[in-house]
Amino acid sequence: MTYFRDTIEKMAGYVPGFQPKTADVIKLNSNENPWPASPKVFEAIAELTSLDFQRYPEAAGDSFRAAAAQVLNVRPENIICTNGGDDLLTICVRVCCDHTRPMAYAQPTYSLYPVLANIQGCEAVEVPRGENGSLDELAKINAPLTIVCNPNAPTCDMLPIDALAELAGRLTGVLLIDEAYVDFAEDNAIRLVHDFENVLILRSMSKGYSLAGLRFGFGIASPKLIAGLMKAKDSYNADVISLAAATAAIKDQAHLKSNVEKIIAERTRLTEQLTSLGFEVSPSQTNFLLSRCVGCDAKAIHEALKKQNIFIRYFSLDGLTDKLRITIGTPEQNDKLLAALKDVLD
Ligand SMILES: Cc1ncc(COP(=O)(O)O)c(C=O)c1O
């Protein structure tokens, strides 16, 4: 006997990266930011009053929408606030998909997409990710919801925005461009929102803005798409603390820029160092690296580092079993990782 729908009973559920309980570890397994968020975030939280907590928060997060619209050069009606980028994915799957309306994406990509398809009881049409992101195949499938992660996790690469524009023009359904890592990339797709009614861009405050613990993300799209998504969100999906903090964070673009620059500098250095240790490192437009272990056992390295309280990510998935995903840490963390890797390899 089961209490659940068949699909829930059968599915495995999303497996998050390991979260160690103590702080004295080197945690490079969840693509978090190693640098603190803007001090303005903590000032904004400290300024909240007891009345702010007594009352419900702004239902649509209008303060954040106004601030983000100004920074991103769009209108507030182009923005939906969500409880992390994952909440935007959930809402979007809820409004676009059912058992007759599949989603489509190229694999490997963010492992939450098939989980959400399972929960919603919709088919997830997967194509292997080719060099051009398999956009032509996705256009031919023309699913009610097509998801392209750009830059892609875990492969770190980025497709040209012109290619996504072409895909958007060929699709009759929604094109969700997951830009969770775009703060570390050279380009972004916001300009497509002005030209394509069917483009929805996902943004996260967890990566560039160092606020993974807060849970705040947002979507950018045409007012028509935003209005549809608004119907299916929880009434108060962003709480008073996350709205105040995220608003302060997005206003402090100088802080974002300075943290991103530090991470990009370390990304270059870590890429060089890992290459000299014998890894094949894919060029990255994100805050992590995917490194192929040449002539070594990726899983064994992952386990050996874990014993030294250094956490990186290993995926036992097709095409990834010889690779390690490493989040860019501080220079000190990266140095410790490199020293430990050298020992393990020796
Ligand atoms: C590709 C991708 N999209 C979306 C998210 C969701 O981010 P969050 O819910 O923390 O904003 C993540 C988180 O790791 C991710 O890797």
What is the element layout, followed by pairings?
Elements: H1 6-10, E1 26-27, H2 39-46, H3 50-54, H4 62-72, E2 79-82, H5 85-96, E3 103-107, H6 112-120, E4 124-128, H7 135-141, E5 145-149, H8 161-170, E6 174-178, H9 190-195, E7 199-204, E8 217-221, H10 223-232, H11 240-251, H12 253-276, E9 279-281, E10 288-293, H13 298-307, E11 310-311, E12 323-327, H14 331-345
Parallel strand pairs: 1-11, 3-4, 3-5, 5-6, 6-7
Antiparallel strand pairs: 2-8, 7-8, 9-10, 10-12
Helix pairs in contact: 2-11, 4-11, 5-6, 7-8
Bound molecules: pyridoxal-5'-phosphate.
Residues 31, 84-86, 110, 149, 153, 178, 180, 204, 206, 212, 217 line the site of pyridoxal-5'-phosphate.
The profile of the biggest β sheet is: 7 strands, mixed
Top CATH class of the largest domain: Alpha Beta
Proportion of residues in β-strands: 15-25%
Enumerate the spans where pLDDT stays under 50 for 5 or more consecutive residues.
Answer: none
CATH architecture of the largest domain: 3-Layer(aba) Sandwich
Task: Give the distinct bound molecules.
Answer: pyridoxal-5'-phosphate
Give the overall form. globular
Counting DSSP E segments of at least 2 residues, the number of strands comes to 12
Question: How helix-rich are the residues, as a percent range?
Answer: 40-55%
Instruction: Tell me the number of structural domains.
Output: 2
Helical segment count: 14
SSE string: HEHHHEHEHEHEHEHEEHHHEEHEEH
CATH superfamily of the largest domain: Type I PLP-dependent aspartate aminotransferase-like (Major domain)
CATH topology of the largest domain: Aspartate Aminotransferase, domain 2
> Roughly what is the average pLDDT, rounded to an integer?
96
End-to-end C-alpha gap: 53 Å
Strand order of the largest sheet: 2-8-7-6-5-3-4
**Which class best fits the helix and strand makeup?**
alpha/beta
